[in-house]
Specification:
This protein has 4 helices and 10 strands; from the N terminus they run βββαβααβαβββββ. It starts with a strand and ends with a strand. The protein has a 6-stranded mixed sheet with strand order 1-2-3-4-5-6. The radius of gyration is 14 Å and the shape is globular. It is α/β, with parallel strands linked by helices. Strand 3, helix 1 and strand 4 (52-54) form a beta-alpha-beta unit. The protein has helices at 33-42, 60-63, 66-72, 81-87, and strands spanning 2-8, 15-20, 23-27, 52-54, 76-79, 99-101, 105-109, 112-118, 127-133, 136-140.
Length: 143
């Protein structure tokens, strides 16, 4: 079963929570680390349980909390090579093995199927995602 909650959506910041079986996922972390932790707490979830963060693109309203959260918590970070190159200095304290570089296509995490697709936007590279598990599917395409 897939569960979804928007933690923040708008020009001030974006973050979306998805629970798919045993996986806890965030798509974008565009608010402060404190805000993200508190928003997760309000829905009974914890940043410590997050397994993966998917980044749609490099604009600050999508990545603002990433460096701090990645320093404090141990989740995998899914982003394109081009976004990583732009953020490399900010993320230099993160072990390289935590990054998973993505491109258009399909990725499977356990029984969760994730479709990654390009979205037209004024950023280096922008992705949208669909998450599908047990015939339930949710899509996220921002901006």
């Amino acid at each position: 079963m897939i569960e979804y909650c928007s933690l923040a959506s708008g020009s001030c910041g974006n973050s979306h929570y998805i629970k798919a079986g045993q996986l806890d996922i965030l798509v974008d972390v565009g608010m402060s680390a404190k805000y993200i932790r508190e928003a997760l707490g309000q829905i009974g979830e914890s940043m410590a349980d997050i397994d993966a963060v998917f980044i749609t693109h490099e604009h600050s309203d999508h990545i603002k909390g990433l460096a701090v959260l990645a320093k404090r918590f141990d989740f995998r970070i899914f982003m394109s090579h081009s976004i990583y190159r732009l953020l490399q200095e900010q993320l230099s304290h993160i072990a390289p093995e935590r990054f998973v570089f993505i491109e258009d296509g399909v990725l499977e995490l356990g029984d969760l199927k994730i479709e990654i697709f390009s979205v037209s936007h004024d950023a280096t590279q922008t992705f949208g995602f669909t998450f599908e598990q047990a015939s339930k599917k949710i899509g996220i395409a921002t901006d």
